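Lecture notes, unit on binding sites. The following record was shown on slide 14. It pairs a sequence with 2'-monophosphoadenosine-5'-diphosphate.
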Amino acid sequence: MTDRYAVIGNPISQTKSPFIHAAFARQCSQDMNYAAISAPIGGFSEAVAEFCREGGKGLNVTIPFKVDAVMIADHLTERAQLAQAVNTLKFDENAVLGDNTDGIGLVHDIQVRLGISLRHKRILLIGAGGVARGVLLPLLEEGPAQLLVVNRTLGKAEALITRFADRGHLAAGGFADIADQQFDVLINATSASFGGECLPLPADCFAPDSLAYDMAYGRGNTPFMTQALASGAGFVTDGLGMLVAQAAESFFLWRGVRPDVLPVIEMLIAAQQR
Ligand code: ATR
């Protein structure tokens, strides 16, 4: 019988996950179906229970349900536990596993697709919301020399790093604290790009060999990418590669096979340009 999977969120019409997972399934010869479910606000657990009753094997969880999904899981991976957010649910006979593949997707995209090691690097993580929380542990696990989390609201950055304090060289600050500092990798985990806004970053925090990574994506360069290029960053990218890489990690958790992300990224870029 064909195994059933889906992405669940609200709104969900914009999701690329069914396209990505259908491509993975073809590539890896997996007999599976992957749909998109729009759950009403306040109706997340009922929608999950229904999908499970109907024999569903796994779900990707997206905005605004990633925190609700923590409650649904019987067991959490450590990275989901620390992120306090779940983007992947796996339904076994008697238990529900909750994982968070966002951070490993980001790390994979930077290190494998872009070929930039994070080990001993100076990393600036911009933002202290759910997106930033989801990627902190996987970033720290790569052994950077320093990871500074800056946020418009300093208290949120300070609160965020407390639970990761024993995991590496981690510090919190406001935008004023990064004057006269340069970073190897600058990651935008704020929602500023969605509003078309630029971040108050000093131009000299980007170096000619810096990577500026925007976790947001869309048509063309995001405001953060444009800002980074104008400030002299050598490499810029949006988060499309991370999107596909986090999906690949979910696929691996469910199916035990690891798809090749590159052809799927290329298909998405080609579809965007059409
Ligand atoms: P998410 O779960 O998507 O991370 P969030 O919890 O609302 O969403 O967090 C959004 C992040 O983007 C926060 O770090 C926010 O900064 P504040 O904590 O100070 O609100 C940041 N952000 C949003 N718009 C921004 C802007 N124009 N400039 C700087 N930071 C911005």
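Take-home: The mean pLDDT is 96.
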